[in-house]
Amino acid sequence: MEGMTEVRVLVVDDQDxxxxxxxxxxxxxxGFVVVGAVSTGEDSLDAVRELAPDLVLMDVxxxxxxxxxxxxxxxxxxxxxxxxxxxxxxxxxxxxxxxxCDAAAxxxxxxxxxxxxxxxxxxxxTVH
Length: 128
Known about the structure:
alpha/beta
């Protein structure tokens, strides 16, 4: 990714340890930079408007509006301009319904790594 603009990432998770872990993975991934971290779905909506990230790493289970609802709102707030959203959770993907929320991918928190981050970003941006 040399010579290319860094991918701006917002981390959304209600647990501080996971926010720090996801931010560390992003920081270890060439071409990616953390521009913010918030703990609720509501805060993610404000942070996206303020920080204009390219990618949002969104926990599924959040207090207030959950990550699936927050992702759907991001897509409807700025159709065509919304950031790529990757859902993360400790649960298996078949334990929740992400239909219609416009998330680009789901990644288990246990499987989240620099390689997986690059892979989902490439897949999401190739499709769009």
